[in-house]
Amino acid sequence: MTGLEVEHLGTGYGTTQVVTDVSLSVEPGQIVAIFGRNGVGKTTLLRGIMGYLPLSCGRVLLDGEPISGKRTHVIVRAGVGYAAQERSIFSDLTVETNLKLARQGGDNREEEAMLNCFPRIRERMTQKAGTLSGGEQKMLIAVRTLANASRVAILDEIVEGVQPGLLGMFQEAVRRASSRGLSILLVEQHLNYALPLAHDFIVMSSGRVVEAGPVTGSSREQIERHLVL
Fold it and tell me: Is 96 helix (H, G, I), strand (E, B) or coil?
């Protein structure tokens, strides 16, 4: 049981180091949530894990095998799903076509399970993805990512801008994916959404991990003191 492991990772943009010496692990079936104020390096960390940015130090392992240095499409083919913070959909294509393009091949039973979590998306299969509301586009991205990831799913603020009444659908989908053994790494600002899901939490500040541990009754207080300006 290894899942995703990040060891002493450093990365950034050009000569600017943004993330320094970050280590974490997400076992199969485990949900780990990363918190931190805007601009502390959370998204940069994820981009380093996914191969979009070169690493200045450290490494990333998937089930014990190094994947750092590999191209992003190779990491995705290895079973790592990534929902980026920006809404990456094909706006002029239908919802159904967006889902088909993401499939690794053949029928996808997990896609059906995810659509059961988001019945609105099932109802809008023939609609162009660009005409969906912002929350519905997030649902589409969640279905696509969680259904097609076979080992790890990385979700970067997947519920940003989503109405509070819809958060339960996303929680149900993440729990469903975790129950089938997916390692799930969340970056979130929304504590009410993420804390009930997460087994462990990490807080980042200035590109480093400043607090980490299992989620307990006192975790909110631990996290919030790092989020206060």
Answer: helix
The structure tokens 């191209």 sit at 71
Of the candidate CATH numbers 3.90.550.10, 3.20.20.150, 3.40.50.300, 3.30.70.60, the domain formed by 4-227 belongs to: 3.40.50.300
Tokens at 179, concatenated? 């129950």
Largest Cα–Cα separation, the chain: 49
Full-model pTM: 0.94
> How are beta strands 183-187 and 31-35 bridged, if at all?
parallel
Q: Which residues pair with 25 in a beta bridge?
A: 5
Alpha-carbon span 78 to 188, nearest angstrom? 25
In 85-167, the DSSP E strands lie at 152-156
Task: Write the pLDDT tens digit of every residue in 113-151.
Answer: 999 999 999 999 999 999 999 999 999 999 999 999 999
Instruction: Please name the residue that has the structure tokens 């989908």.
Output: 173
Here the tokens at position 89 are 């959909």
